[in-house]
TrEMBL record:
UniProt KW Chloroplast keyword: no
Name of the protein: FAD-binding dehydrogenase
Matches recorded under Gene3D superfamilies: FAD/NAD(P)-binding domain (3.50.50.60)
Keywords on record: Flavoprotein, Oxidoreductase
Chain ranges passing through the membrane: none
Length: 556
């Protein structure tokens, strides 16, 4: 006979130890409740997906913005958020309320709360998702992307420290290698969870771990919080959820999150009575490159580009206005899915790459992650591409560096799928763009926008190269980068009210069940609507995790 399940009893059960789970657990413990945290991975993965992030956070009218000469307001942020979200469904009722609540949080309490926990922020505010449409269309009207000093690990650190302090005091129990396979219920109330105990694993952070089962467990809890993340590591589920408005799903994608981000708790929560909404809303990037030193399968890294590179589709045609680097992620994804090809291209100069290319991820930014000021000054303000970018130029399968345009085109055509590239079209596009650089009265919208970007001193300092002809030998060598779709975020999930209580299809709360983080669409079942403003994913985990932890504790 199999051994009897190990049993635990607690006040609050938190499923998933990513950022939202750590925040929820720390809040519940601070309220005096006993907490158990479970996760299917080894403890090396504490902090989850957030640990790997660039650490960008969305604030509204922050001191950092004001010091950079940026005028922001709650009204402007609300205009941008709702213009970007495009809420248009009946099930957007709670996401709309979460959006209003989160905007207030980002404008008022969020920064001070994080500062009290010891977090600091890079003084130059980034401008992501610039939009390029009208005032009421998608995009950030002003820079709002605040990089955490320490990147993703710096965001995770204060909450991990709080959880581990409570663990040492016996108020929190952390159970790694515990995979939930069911939420337990009694008369419609969620009473905890049951699942498999997986074999011990010493796998490093992010590396795929064994799924061998060595036992089982049961946990009884007065309140259960699902904070297990989204579906980005499960390409089959991504393709099954892919909406027609984004074209056909790519046959080939890179994975922007570890493989354990598998979406398994969503269906488990639905079986227990929760309503899943907005599953067709998702956030994937089109500037993905193959990691030359991968940690998980199909590991992709996203380029955070400045606005100067020429963006071409697989055949060599330039993307239409305003689908320029850094302007409209989902609009670009939808356009490229209509081309019939899974890749596209950046064409640029050495002068552009050394000023404008940053790679997303804590491990790709050792200066910011390590809080190394001398390295930061040398890498961000010095000559040449920063170290991690240079490594991709030298070793990455998607980078081509050549002295002439003919050589560059030949290198592009030599890569897999490059046979569809029309070299004459590439030359036409690059030469036409370069002619416009010499024209102060250009009709080229991208050139006008990059000149406008340099009116913001943050962009002029570290993010936007001085306008120049890409084919000017003094700006070379020439560089082409093959770009892939890289999966990242689910924008839908478990529907929740403003207390993070999971809701049933009837609209009533499921007793005993809460949800936070990406599993809840970062709040409400989809606080971002169709599109996100960037810097809002970690913030959504912080806000929804805090809400869930406090609400669960108050209800007991």
């Amino acid at each position: 006979m199999p051994p009897a399940p190990t049993s635990h009893t607690t006040d609050v059960l938190v499923i998933g130890w990513g950022l939202a789970g750590l925040v929820a657990a720390s809040e519940a413990a601070a309220a005096g409740k006993r907490v158990v945290i479970v996760d299917q991975e080894p403890r090396t993965n504490l902090g989850g997906q957030a640990w790997w992030s660039f650490g960008g956070l969305f604030f509204v009218d922050s001191p950092e913005q004001r010091r950079m000469g940026i005028t922001d307001s709650l009204d402007l942020a609300r205009q941008d958020w709702f213009g970007t979200a495009g809420f248009d469904r009946d099930e957007d009722a709670w996401p709309r309320r979460w959006a209003e609540a989160y905007l207030q949080f980002a404008h008022e309490e969020k920064r001070a709360w994080l500062r009290e926990k010891g977090m600091g922020f890079f003084p130059v505010v980034g401008w992501a998702e610039r939009g390029g449409y009208t005032a009421m269309g998608p995009g950030n009207s002003v820079p709002r992307f605040h990089i955490t000093w320490g990147t993703g690990p710096g965001v995770v650190a204060p909450f991990q420290a709080a959880v581990e302090a409570a663990e040492s005091q016996g108020r929190i129990t952390i159970l790694g290698r515990h995979r939930v396979i069911a939420l337990t219920t009694s008369d419609g109330t969620v009473t905890g969870a049951a699942g498999d105990i997986l074999s011990p694993s010493g796998a490093p952070r992010g590396v795929v771990s064994s799924r061998a089962v060595v036992g089982s467990f049961e946990i009884s809890a007065a309140a259960t919080i699902v904070s297990s993340g989204g579906i980005g590591g499960n390409h089959d589920l991504v393709r099954a959820s892919w909406p027609p408005r984004l074209g056909t799903p790519p046959a080939s994608m890179l994975m922007g999150v570890p493989a354990y981000v598998d979406g398994s708790m969503l269906s488990i929560s639905e079986i227990a009575g929760a309503r899943l909404i907005n599953g067709d809303r998702m956030w994937h990037y089109v500037e993905g490159i193959q990691n030359w030193d991968p940690i998980w399968p199909e590991h992709g890294i996203r380029i955070l580009p400045g606005p100067s590179s020429i963006w071409l589709d697989a055949t060599g045609r330039r993307l239409p206005v305003p689908l320029f680097p850094g302007y409209d992620t989902l609009g670009t994804l939808a356009h490229l899915r209509g081309t019939g090809h899974d890749h596209s291209w950046f064409v640029l100069s050495q002068k552009i790459i050394e000023k404008e290319f940053t790679l997303s991820g804590s491990e790709q930014n050792p200066d910011l992650t390590g809080k190394d000021v001398p390295l930061l000054v040398k890498s961000r303000l010095g000559k040449g591409a920063i170290g991690p970018v240079k490594a991709f130029m030298d070793k990455g399968a998607d980078f081509i560096v050549r002295d002439t345009l003919d050589e560059l085109i030949a290198g592009m055509r030599a890569l897999p799928g490059g046979d569809v590239l029309d070299g004459d079209r590439v030359r036409l596009e690059v030469e036409a763009r370069d002619r416009e650089i010499d024209n102060d009265f250009t009709k080229d919208a991208q050139i006008a926008m990059l000149r406008s970007a340099r009116s913001y001193r943050g962009d002029k300092l570290i993010r936007t190269a001085a306008p120049h002809r890409i084919l000017d030998p003094k700006s070379g060598p020439l560089i082409a980068v093959k770009l892939h779709v890289v999966t990242r975020k689910s924008l839908g999930g478990i529907e929740t009210d403003l207390s993070a209580r999971a809701l049933a299809p009837s609209g009533e709360p499921v007793p005993g069940l809460y949800a936070a983080g990406e599993a809840s669409g970062f709040g409400g079942g989809g606080v971002h609507g169709y599109r996100a403003l960037e810097g809002t994913f970690l913030g959504g985990c912080l806000f929804s995790g805090r809400t869930a932890g406090r609400a669960a504790a108050d209800a007991i």
